[in-house]
Write a structure and sequence with these properties.
Length: 465
């Protein structure tokens, strides 16, 4: 079940919120757990048992890690927990990748497993890993109540698309959280804005991206138009889902971390990754980069640490070589910045913004490809290899989607928010806005619903992850 679907918006969510509202505080987590399992089982009933087994194992391992703290057994139980979680992720997500590459190297023909990827497994695996590691480090206490731990892992607002919520961030909220009309209002506003970003902007841009992929009239300008559109599409898709998750969290009394902070205004790739998919970047920093030694090591070891993190970041996104190349691509850029150009970028803000958009656009062309061969072909096309400079379809789609691209580009910056905040300081505008805000949100919800009811283009990018 997707947030951006009629069944979720008008059946599942209202029913869950009504039941949750009338349920006594002591049973609220039980309601959350049951509704989350139903949400997950809606499209993949069989894999809900995998999730339950994962939760059961992590619950037991957490108790054992804490029980034997300070002994070798604590580390053994931590290793068991990590390996079993990674084994499940590796089996379902990466088995065919390894078989395919093994066949290429050896010339064998081992049949592929062709497993269906459990939705959200990349996200909830990282959550369970961070929980057991934090218990081992003594950062959190092992959760004694299995319902509370299960509710954390399966919590439906952030289950399928993040942000990656750490147990340490909501440990106290699982036991005691506040519910208020202000939170409900704020959560509703955030959810509708996220839904609109996904349906109106990301899906519209996605139509152009799909048209490019299926086109037989590609050109250099068409490749770059696709690059910018796909870059904006994936931003509004990811950030829209994060907004919806944060909004849903507020409706249920939770406060989730921000996951995007206007990444396209960055003046370096380093800054870009502080603003893009923040929960993923901070997870790799705290659970991979720092344990490897971080930047408090010799230069050769630092390079090793950086490229391990970015190899894993790419591989986490998908079981194809183009994702690995995508991750290493950023590793190269970040290394160059760290040792050579970062101080110069800070002196030339305008040129540095162009530099960021240029290299990020190329990165997402690599990211968008189905495999490494397509990725190489796409990047080559951006620089005129095998294609003409311009084409009829480029002109056609620029005219057809120019307005939505412009709106999306402006909306990806803080400009609309800053203008609104400035105007809100005016007494006259505040009075008008307080009257029209709710009708505007209702209009956005109705427009989004109309798109969905019409059966419009509504891809789910997270199936790949």
């Amino acid at each position: 079940m997707l947030f951006s679907s009629i069944p979720f918006l008008y059946y599942f969510l209202p029913i869950v919120l009504m039941i949750y509202a009338i349920t006594p505080r002591i049973f609220k987590n039980t309601v959350l757990l049951l509704s989350s399992l139903i949400f997950y089982a809606w499209g993949e009933p069989i894999y809900v048992f995998l999730m339950i087994a994962t939760i059961g194992l992590v619950y037991i391992m957490g108790l054992l890690i804490e029980r034997f703290k300070g002994t070798v057994w604590s580390k053994i139980f931590l290793v068991i927990s990590i390996l079993t979680s990674l084994a499940a992720l590796g089996y379902f997500k990466y088995a065919d990748f390894f078989i395919t590459n093994f066949n290429r190297i050896t010339g064998l023909s081992i049949p592929l497993l062709r497993l269906v990827l459990p939705i959200g497994i990349s996200f909830y695996t990282f959550q369970t890993l961070s929980y057991t590691v934090d218990v081992y480090r003594g950062n959190v206490a092992a959760q004694k109540n299995p319902i509370n731990l299960a509710a954390y892992v399966a919590l439906f607002p952030q289950l399928i698309a993040g942000p990656i919520v750490r147990y340490s961030d909501i440990e106290t909220q699982l036991v005691s959280r506040t519910h208020s009309f202000d939170k409900i209002a704020s959560g509703t506003r955030r959810f509708i804005i996220g839904l609109s970003k996904k349906i109106i902007l990301a899906n519209s841009l996605g139509e152009l991206s799909d048209a490019f992929i299926s086109s037989g009239d590609k050109s250099v300008l068409f490749f770059w138009l696709f690059a910018f559109c796909y870059m904006l599409q994936i931003y509004f898709d990811f950030s829209g889902y994060s907004d919806m998750a944060i909004g849903l969290g507020k409706l249920l009394g939770f406060e989730f971390m921000e996951n995007f902070n206007y990444p396209f205004i960055s003046s370096s790739i380093t800054e870009f990754w502080r603003r893009w998919h923040i929960s993923l970047g901070s997870w790799f920093r705290d659970y991979v980069y720092i344990p490897l030694g971080g930047n408090r090591v010799k230069k050769a070891r630092l390079l090793f640490n950086i490229f391990v993190v970015w190899f894993l970041t790419g591989f986490w996104h998908g079981a194809e070589w183009n994702f690995i190349i995508w991750g290493l691509y950023f590793g190269v850029l970040l290394t160059i910045e760290k040792f050579f150009v970062l101080k110069h970028l800070e002196k030339h803000k305008f040129l540095s913004h162009i530099y960021v958009i240029f290299f990020v656009a190329i990165s997402f062309v690599i990211f968008s490809a189905n495999n490494l061969t397509d990725a190489i072909s796409y990047v080559g096309g951006m620089f005129g290899i095998g294609v003409p400079f311009a084409s009829f379809e480029w002109t056609y789609y620029l005219k057809s989607y120019g307005l939505i691209i412009l709106i999306a580009a402006i909306s990806s910056t803080p400009l609309p928010k800053n203008v609104l905040s400035h105007l809100y300081q005016k007494v006259w505008f505040k009075k008008i806005w307080d009257v029209i805000e709710i009708p505007l949100l209702i209009v956005l919800l109705l427009i989004s619903t109309a798109y969905l009811a019409d059966g419009s283009f509504n891809p789910f990018l997270y199936f790949r992850f």
